[in-house]
Amino acid sequence: MSEQTQILAAAPVRKRRLRLRDFNEITIPAITLIAVVILWELASRLFDIPEYLVPAPSRIWADSMQMKEAMLMHTLVSTRTIMLGFLLSIVISFPLAVLITYSRFFEQAIYPLLILTQSIPKVALAPILVIIFGPTELPRVVVTFLVAFFPLVISMTAGLLAAPPELIELVRACRATRLQEFFRIRLPFAVPFIFSGLKVAITLSVVGAVVGEFVAADQGLGYLITTSTAFFKTPVAFGAMAILSVLGIVFFQVISAAERILFPWAIKDNRS
């Protein structure tokens, strides 16, 4: 049997394996989540745990549905803050990564500032930002940006530097311009790193938005959690946390789907 015939014969098997893998990636987490919720519900009922400590999932659902319109409004506010901070982190991180890649001076100048921004606790920084920018949405967006942009800069820089030096020397020997080198060599090699950074950044954006809403907000899921716990409405606070978790998962999966659709060649999976 020729090599080409073997490849054609193995193609259907490979497709079935990919479909089974995709199916398992959905069903296994879903079954696990359902099992955890059932065990949680049973434990709450069997051990009679007070609802102001750890409410049962059924009570969380019931209380959240009673104020579903308010929940939707707070969710939309938090989603807007998350997306604004995330997009701002992309807009600023990419030029910084390019400067660090091509300039030793900017690398030495920018890296200490990046580390400094990450060394400051965002909970301590948020009240100062409220004083500077006022009690508006801007401080929350800035906090979200500060939380998300650092891993994005690091991953983008690592990706742009991941191109083999031999390949860089080859294109330069062929008199390629810096733009040609960037778009044809460095950027394609950086795609997996960029999407890895985007996945981390979007989940951290959810955290950053909530931190900002804890400090200064009159809307948003973080604000709802603060006010609910203050009045011992624990089921509502758990409902808000569940929505935040769903937002993080959805945003993460959207970026993963974009990577699979736009850059399937950049995805490597060596697991059998």
Automatic annotation (TrEMBL):
CDD domains attached to this UniProt entry: TM_PBP2
Pfam families hit by this protein: BPD_transp_1
Note the InterPro entries from the entry: MetI-like, MetI-like_sf
Q: Give TM segment ranges.
A: 23-43, 81-102, 109-133, 145-168, 189-216, 236-258
**Signal peptide from the UniProt entry:** none
Compartmental location? Cell membrane
Q: Per UniProt, what is the membrane topology?
A: Multi-pass membrane protein
Domain ABC transmembrane type-1: residue ranges = 75-259
The UniProt entry's GO biological process terms, in alphabetical order, are:
transmembrane transport
Record key words, sorted:
Cell membrane, Membrane, Transmembrane, Transmembrane helix, Transport
Q: Name one GO cellular component term.
A: plasma membrane
| Entry similarity comment | Belongs to the binding-protein-dependent transport system permease family.
Protein's UniProt name = ABC transporter permease
